[in-house]
Amino acid sequence: MVEEKELDLVNRGLMLPLMEEFYTIQGEGFHKGTAAYFIRVGGCDVGCHWCDVKESWDAEKHPPTSIENIVSNAAKYSDTIVVTGGEPLMWNMEPLTSGLKANKLKTHIETSGAYPLTGTWDWVCLSPKKTKLPVSEVYEVADELKVIVYNRHDLVFAEEQAAQVNENCVLYLQPEWSVRDKVIPLIVDYVMQNPKWKVSLQTHKYLNIP
């Protein structure tokens, strides 16, 4: 159980329910193939049925960890830090990004956009979900829109989401891993007919790395 004092610090963003942190190669989207240090924060109520990190959903399963420790670990490995989840925007990201920025680190976030944006970010990857749509302010600042395609209707959803982001946002369609053999041909055909979109693959899974 999280003690009351720790809970207060978590609610203020001075501690975060840390699921895992690791140095690897970014496998998806615009920055794929580049080295980055990942900070995976526990807690998510978006509830995608195909989520491949369901163990991140319950924040209480992940130990509250001080921002100072998280920043110190991150600074040892890379100048690019990716904060993901779970849904990291369930928590106040301002203390974390302030600490990372104080160490001259680039800050990237991967989010569903379901909560207001906190923190200072060099790159915002918005991956919207039908179950809990993004708030308007995240659409406005998204650098990258990454829509996961599980079935044909997700292409309709993708266009609805693309209509709401800024004109400089890079658009990606990414096959959901468990049905990739079925949806990759669908995505390839769609991108060829609608070249404003790009294909994103989970290349880290093909490379067999975290």
Q: Secondary structure elements and their pairing?
A:
Blueprint: H1 4-11, E1 15-25, E2 35-41, E3 64-66, H2 67-75, E4 80-84, H3 94-102, E5 106-111, E6 123-126, H4 136-141, E7 144-149, H5 153-162, E8 170-175, H6 180-193, E9 197-199, H7 203-206
Parallel strand pairs: 2-4, 4-5, 5-6, 6-7, 7-8, 8-9
Antiparallel strand pairs: 1-2, 1-3
Helix pairs in contact: 2-3
Polypeptide structure, described:
By secondary structure, the chain is α/β, with parallel strands linked by helices. It has one domain: TIM Barrel. Strand 6, helix 4 and strand 7 form a beta-alpha-beta unit. Helix 2 packs parallel to helix 3. The longest helix is centred in the last third of the chain and has 14 residues. It is globular and about 55 Å long. Belongs to the radical SAM superfamily. 7-carboxy-7-deazaguanine synthase family. It is an enzyme of class 4 (lyase). Catalyzes the complex heterocyclic radical-mediated conversion of 6-carboxy-5,6,7,8-tetrahydropterin (CPH4) to 7-carboxy-7-deazaguanine (CDG), a step common to the biosynthetic pathways of all 7-deazapurine-containing compounds.
In summary, what is this structure?
This protein is of the alpha/beta class and 210 residues long. Helices cover 29% and strands 24% of the residues. Strands 3-1-2-4-5-6-7-8-9 form a nine-stranded mixed sheet.
